[in-house]
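Hi R.,

Here's the chain you asked about this morning:
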Amino acid sequence: NVYNNMFISICEDSRDSLWIGTYGCGLKRFDRKTRQFKTFLSDSADPGSIGNNYVLVIFEDSRKTLLIGTRSGLNRLDRKTEKFSRILAKDRQQNRSGSNPTIFDIFEDSAGKIWLGTSIGLRIFNTSADVYEKHPEPQFSEIRVRIVTEDSEKRLILGTDSGIIILDRQSNTVRKIAAVDGLPDDNIRSIVPDDNNNIWIATNYGLCRLDLTKNRFLNYYRSDGLSGNQFNPRARLKTVEGNIYFGGMNGITYFSPDRIEKNKITPNIEITEFRLMDQVIIPGKDNVLKRTILD
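And here is the predicted structure, written out as tokens:
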């Protein structure tokens, strides 16, 4: 029944296996050698099972640890025993009350720190204490963080329901950018930095190339060649060649950022038709338009 499942996350690990997160049907592993699937389901009677069957993100860190983000928190898989550890948020570990948040994204930065985008803000995974903690800035605990990534300047970039947030950890400054500033839409679906210090932002309505150095926005829509205006959450890929892929409601949009150029030629304006009350008007002595306006 694997082909009847809705896949919402895919991860290729260092062992050449594919891990697939589904919408309500658990976590699946595809072994390329045996061509077989194995399914891991949540079981309330088994504390070693995955915590939730809605698997939003799968991530293998630099230590080869497999982390799984679900609707009810973070899980870690022991691949020898095939048992899961359910990692608690620090505040819940202290009082053992409430529920763990939805984990939307998992990201390891250039320093090896693991960040979580959650339904209750930005979190830091403390691997030594085996908990995830709040960011010290209170403003990061009041938003849904759906995307976490890092650009070439080591700035942390967050995608939210109300635009993007850029955290410059060297200068300790925070910048918020929304549709009123130039983004095509506030609902951020994916973010991919390219090799030219630009960040590409897929939204619920259009794609943006943002040059943070010059503060320049270039927005693209279906009329510019996109497969559609609406993109899917976390459906993104940057290849080793630098090509970028975004998944959307109408298919995949892919391109090489180096080959995207702005059209600097201003087209000539030509009038090809005249309408009045949505009716084509033909020039004539008995019509409202006495002579042609096309000359």
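One quick note: The CA atoms of residues 150 and 180 lie 23 Å apart.

Cheers,
M.
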